[in-house]
Design a protein that fits this description.
mainly alpha; two-stranded antiparallel sheet; globular
């Protein structure tokens, strides 16, 4: 399993790193578009669409993405709608745990999913337009939160469960460790201006140090919300992973679940 996981990671890096660093933004957007379409397919599977339902849903998401680009739909409006979903619906779902057998809830998630994926795509492309360092630093927020949580959980133990009925492996110790990792690296990057402009320097420049600290804390919180939300869908659907598209890693949603809320919310914070 470890060997498979490492090989998959190397292949992904070999594809995504050169495209992120060197290709024109149009080609970058096309690659991210494919990622979003595959994620939409997995979303349809988690919502238990039958037969060709997940494929149809992915096609609808792809068509919506194309039309949102050619029709010039304002990205900020998509970010706002996605933010409303994650700020209101995300916590509601984690607290109340509405089941997928409730037809209205499933239908709502099918429509909301399109907005979530459109906002994610536009946010990644907008971030890339601000610079390679900017988009990588935005992804780094989620990666640091995840890495910090892993090592804090190992070091401090797993005594205080964060959401035992949804994701038993997640703990408050891990969440705090992830938050601390983000805050420390963000402070260093912002104070030194390392590879500026980054999301860290942009937040400090736009909001000031105190509100940038609050903003980064909120991004860490919503990275956890996104992760737990997908875990809830998988648990209710009876799946261990969102799919087997990425051997050793699960599916696309398993890799981007925490990014789905962080990307649009971060862009909204920067105006």
């Amino acid at each position: 399993m470890l060997r498979t996981r490492v090989i998959t990671a190397i292949v992904l890096l070999a594809v995504f790193v050169p495209i992120t660093l060197f290709v024109p933004i149009g080609a970058f957007g096309e690659l991210i578009g494919f990622v979003v379409v595959f994620a939409a397919w997995e979303w349809g599977r988690l919502l238990k669409l039958n037969g060709a339902g997940p494929v149809t849903y992915a096609l609808v998401a792809g068509i919506a993405l194309i039309f949102s680009t050619f029709l010039g739909i304002e990205s900020r409006s998509l970010y706002q709608m996605a933010a409303i979903f994650w700020v209101l619906v995300g916590p509601y779902a984690l607290l109340r745990k509405p089941t997928l057998s409730a037809g209205a809830w499933r239908v709502f998630l099918l429509f909301a999913g399109i907005i979530v994926f459109l906002a994610c795509w536009h946010a990644v492309v907008d971030a890339r337009a601000r610079g390679v360092a900017f988009v990588l630093s935005l992804l780094l927020v989620v990666w640091l939160a995840d890495i910090g949580a892993y090592f804090a959980g190992k070091a401090l133990g797993r005594r205080h469960k964060l959401a035992p009925s949804i994701s038993p492996g997640k703990t408050w110790e891990g969440a705090l460790g992830g938050w601390l990792a983000v805050i420390v690296i963000s402070a260093l990057a912002a104070s030194t201006g390392f590879y500026s402009p980054t999301v860290f320097t942009a937040l400090v420049g736009h909001l000031g140090w105190d509100r940038a600290f609050v903003a980064l804390t909120m991004l860490v919180v919503f990275s956890v919300v996104g992760d737990l939300f997908e875990s809830l869908l998988k648990r209710q659907a009876g799946f261990k992973d969102s799919s087997g598209l990425l051997p050793g890693h699960g599916g696309v949603l398993d890799r981007i679940d925490a990014l789905l809320p962080v990307l649009p919310i971060a862009l909204l914070m920067l105006g």
